[in-house]
Recover the amino acids of this structure.
RNA sequence: GGAUGGGUUCCCGAGUGGCCAAAGGGAGCGGACUGUAAAUCCGUUGUCACAGACUUCGAUGGUUCGAAUCCAUCCCCAUCCA
């Protein structure tokens, strides 16, 4: 019986989905320090929770003594990843991509230790931008069989909807990344979300064929809800790691509100809590499962935003939902003198200003449906307005529905 | 390049001259019920100065008292042929 290694840890926590050579890889991870990589396309200026599973994978591996490489795909993102996307590829400038990549890097540093070569950050634009088409076709293109690619699931599905040469080319570029990292850093393993399976496998095959060296592919579970939908969407969009794009309170609340069935999975994938504890929390019956949600929300928020911020979010949540009294940390919105003037302090205008409603019509509807409260009082008419004195000091707390609060005050 | 079929509101998808701000479903939002969960039921889902007005059905022009619906040109997408 071999000692428990990184592979076992990932397996136990439910990360593993597919692996090219399970036995072989497990053995390798048990006996030597392995350099591996995960790719990220910097198409936005912040990572979101979907990326977080990948970061956790890297963190577990690093803690087990292996060396992660975060590959920032400023080269591949330059033309856009077609996988599964139906929306138009939005073309971004090289400068924008570089900026986004820098943002990613900062966020990754919270979880991964990049000091002393313990982990690397590399940019595939470094080798993709200068690439020569003819050389590429001759050196790399010859190793790929179109008929075999077409047999792959991901392409098979696309066949009906049309498949461009570019989309198939994407696999070659990603495979080339792996080869390049193998040559430069001795990288032997590529990990990634399960939707990347074909692309990852392509790279491992390329190395095995071209270099006659071992290379491994391993995919991790995507973060989905129990009914198979992608997790991490809110009314305001994705659950971003950047608190400017998703407030700490919203972040905390997102996890506080996950469905019962998803708690255990989230705890296992997104936190470092020991598995015995994860299983215990996940098994709590009935109402007690809320304890697990509190732990999940607090732990994950602390991991991403720090203890102090997590504490504030928790305090605010308790004040609003659990009879707590400390209201100082609930989400707030400060109005400038002009905004006060312009809005006339009418409730619909205030709902829009505080982002609780997306338009004044929307706000009117909410009021008509009886979903808007000032303090504890239901707003009866859209013509209702506040007095300027209401906004003085701590201001007033306005609520939309059961769970969305905002404190409004004068700046 | 040729032929054919398409582009409708957040998504899918009906609508082929007035009754269309546009069926139905999904998703979202609000309400009831609950555990800040799920399921279920009800309501709602273009904008605004909101019992009224204004803007939307790929784009631009045109026909008509009146167009998402008809015509012209253009753009885009899919399938087949090259």
């Amino acid at each position: 019986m071999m000692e428990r290694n990184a592979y076992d840890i990932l397996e136990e926590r439910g990360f593993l989905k597919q692996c090219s050579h399970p036995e072989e890889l497990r053995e390798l991870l048990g006996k030597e320090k392995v350099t591996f990589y995960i790719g990220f396309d910097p198409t936005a200026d912040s990572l979101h929770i979907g990326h977080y599973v990948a970061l956790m994978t890297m963190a577990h591996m690093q803690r087990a003594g292996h060396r992660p490489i975060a590959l920032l795909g400023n080269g591949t993102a330059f033309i856009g990843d077609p996988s599964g996307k139906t929306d138009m590829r939005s073309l971004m400038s090289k400068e924008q991509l570089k900026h986004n990549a820098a943002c990613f890097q900062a966020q990754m540093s919270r979880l991964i230790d990049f000091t002393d070569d313990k982990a690397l950050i590399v940019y595939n634009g470094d080798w993709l931008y200068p690439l020569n088409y003819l050389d590429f076709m001759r050196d790399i293109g010859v190793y790929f069989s179109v008929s075999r690619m077409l047999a792959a699931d991901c392409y098979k599905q696309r066949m009906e909807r049309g498949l461009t040469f570019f989309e198939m080319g994407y696999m070659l570029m990603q495979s080339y990344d792996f080869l390049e990292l193998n040559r430069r850093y001795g990288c032997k393993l590529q990990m990634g979300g399960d939707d990347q399976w074909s692309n990852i496998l392509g790279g491992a095959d390329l190395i095995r064929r071209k270099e006659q060296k071992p290379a491994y592919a391993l995919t991790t579970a995507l973060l989905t809800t129990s009914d198979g939908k992608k997790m991490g969407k809110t009314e305001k969009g994705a659950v971003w790691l950047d608190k400017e794009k998703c407030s700490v309170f919203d972040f905390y609340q997102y996890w506080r509100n996950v469905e019962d069935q998803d708690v255990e999975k989230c705890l296992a994938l997104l936190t470092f809590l020991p598995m015995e504890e994860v299983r215990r929390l996940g098994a709590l019956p009935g109402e007690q499962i809320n304890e697990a949600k509190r732990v999940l929300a607090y732990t994950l928020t602390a991991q991403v935003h720090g203890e102090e911020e997590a504490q504030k979010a928790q305090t605010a949540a308790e004040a609003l939902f659990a009879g707590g009294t400390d209201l100082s940390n609930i989400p707030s919105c400060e109005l400038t003198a002009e905004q006060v003037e312009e809005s006339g302090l009418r409730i619909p205008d205030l709902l829009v200003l505080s982002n609780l409603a997306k338009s004044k019509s929307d706000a009117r509807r909410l009021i008509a449906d009886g979903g808007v409260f000032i303090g504890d009082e239901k707003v009866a008419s859209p013509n209702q307005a506040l007095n300027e004195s209401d906004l003085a000091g701590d201001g007033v707390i306005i609520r939309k529905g059961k769970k969305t609060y905002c404190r409004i005050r004068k700046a």
